[in-house]
Amino acid sequence: MHVFEFALAIIALVSVVKLIDTALRQGYLRRRENKVDTDLVARLHEVEERVRVLERIVTDERFDLKQQFKDLGS
Fold first, then answer.
1. Residues 29, 35: contact at Cβ < 8 Å?
2. What pLDDT, on a 0 to 100 scale, did the predictor assign at position 29?
3. Which of 28, 48, 61, 62 could disulfide-pair with 23, CB 3.0 to 4.6 Å?
4. Segments of the chain scoring below 70 in pLDDT
5. CA 18 to chain centre
């Protein structure tokens, strides 16, 4: 009876390992990673847009003129 239980446990273990392997290969367990990646990509786009706005402000001639007036007032 113990041999039968041991064999059944081995068959169950092999089946579970194959099921997990199939799930990993099919991508069922990667959904959370993809969500994190899309969140990071969205955040990166926001930061890129902010940098573009800051570059536009800093390279504007009026910004430079305002900085020179501030420096004169100090």
1. no
2. 58
3. 28
4. 1, 28-36, 74
5. 28
Q: Which pLDDT does position 63 carry in this prediction?
A: 72
Tokens in use for 29?
């367990």
| Distance between CA atoms of residues 70 and 74, nearest Å | 6
For residues 15 and 21, is the Cβ–Cβ distance under 8 A?
no
Torsion angle of C-alpha atoms 54, 60, 64, 66, degrees rounded to 10: -90
Q: What is the CA radius of gyration of the chain?
A: 30
d(CA 36, CA 41): 9
CA distance 21 to 53: 47
First to last CA, the chain: 93
Expressed as residue numbers, the domain containing 19 is 2-73
Residue 38 CA to residue 28 CA, distance in Å, equals 17
